[in-house]
Design brief:
Structural Genomics Hypothetical 15.5 Kd Protein In mrcA-pckA Intergenic Region, Chain A; disordered N terminus; 9 helices; eleven-stranded mixed sheet; three-stranded antiparallel sheet
């Protein structure tokens, strides 16, 4: 976190704490059934924690699911099934278990607590799962990683990496993520995927109600501390977006200055619409391009990347209707370029 200096006029930045831990969002999600069932046992997919095991002895013949429900853990049927689905339950003498696995007297059932699939497997690819349930996935994408496939790149994308992870996590080739929106390749931060076409449709139909906030370091300092940018945007044959007086698609972005330095400033930007390259084009049009954005006129690139980060998603769960809110801190590399 930046410290107060003579060069920085610091406006409240406490809103942008590190990625909101699942433990902080779980209370709302679990009450509605939206949270990852028994997530305190399965693991939160955010920070690696040491795997712990709880063992239970079987005294009489029974099926696995009823046995799990009888344990002093307060598990619901769905939570117990999720534990099995995420491979957090094991029986010593068996290679795999199902809900109807027959247990014998003397069997030992082990429930693993903590992370079942190490996060480094995703971190190496520039992707981190922030939240996961049966209907949605929230990820934190690194700069340089495509959101989805293109003609030039179909393998190393957030969508492809997440699909492979879900298949491995659930041991099911039918598992997949459905695209709800996208981030520019050069932009880091929060993205949302759906886990079914029904959830995808619900999220996209209500996309205008989703709060989408970004943090950006821009060149110079806007004349007004806050404002609203309204432009009409069109895409040229060279795939570059342009502002036009008439026609095109309306783009609306609200901004406010959070911190200002001598050569650049930190802005919070809230999207009312979601056009391609919207923030980048509109900030360039204001005369303050995003630092590192050579495509739209930036002349500085101290971080050697686009200084734009998706920092907040706030919405209602597509199935339960529960309020969901996720935040991601601006990468240190970008905070350090404020001068």
């Amino acid at each position: 976190m930046l410290k107060r200096t003579d060069q920085l006029d610091i406006i409240d930045y406490s809103l942008y704490s590190p990625i909101t831990p699942l433990s902080q969002t779980r209370s709302t999600a679990d009450r509605s059934g939206a949270g990852l069932a028994a997530s305190s046992i399965v693991g939160d997919h955010i920070s690696a924690m040491a795997t712990r095991e709880r063992r239970f002895n079987v005294s009489s013949r029974c099926e696995l699911l009823p046995f799990l429900l009888s344990l002093p853990l307060g598990l619901s049927r769905k939570q117990a099934k999720d534990l099995m689905r995420f491979r957090a339950v094991a029986v010593a003498r068996l290679n795999a278990v199902r809900h109807d696995t027959q247990l014998q007297p003397g069997d030992v059932v082990t429930i693993a607590a903590g992370k079942q699939v190490p996060s480094p497997s995703l971190d190496r690819h520039g992707l981190k799962i922030v939240y996961l349930d049966d209907d949605i996935v929230i990820v934190d994408k690194s700069a340089g990683l495509l959101s989805m496939g293109s003609e030039g790149e179909k393998e190393r994308t957030a969508h492809r990496i997440l699909n492979e992870h879900l298949k491995s996590l659930t041991s099911s080739d039918s598992q997949q993520a459905f695209i709800v929106h996208r981030l520019d390749r050069e932009t880091s931060g929060l993205m949302m995927f759906a886990r079914s076409r029904t959830s995808q449709a619900a999220l996209q139909e209500n996309w205008k109600t989703v709060t989408k906030k970004y943090l950006a370091v821009v060149e110079g300092l806007p004349a007004k501390a806050e404002g609203t940018l309204r432009d009409n945007l069109v895409e040229s044959k060279s795939l570059r977006m342009h502002r036009v007086d008439r026609g095109g698609a309306v783009a609306i972005t609200h901004y406010r200055v959070l911190r200002k330095g001598r050569a650049n400033s930190l802005l919070e930007l809230t999207l009312e619409t979601g056009r391609k390259n919207q923030i980048r084009v509109q900030m360039a049009g204001l005369g303050h391009p995003v630092v590192g954005d050579r495509k739209y006129g930036a002349t500085t690139d101290p971080a050697r990347r686009l200084a734009l980060h998706s920092c907040e998603l706030k919405f209602h769960h597509p199935v339960s209707g529960a309020p969901m809110e996720f935040r991601s801190a601006m990468p240190t590399r970008l905070i350090e370029i404020l001068t």
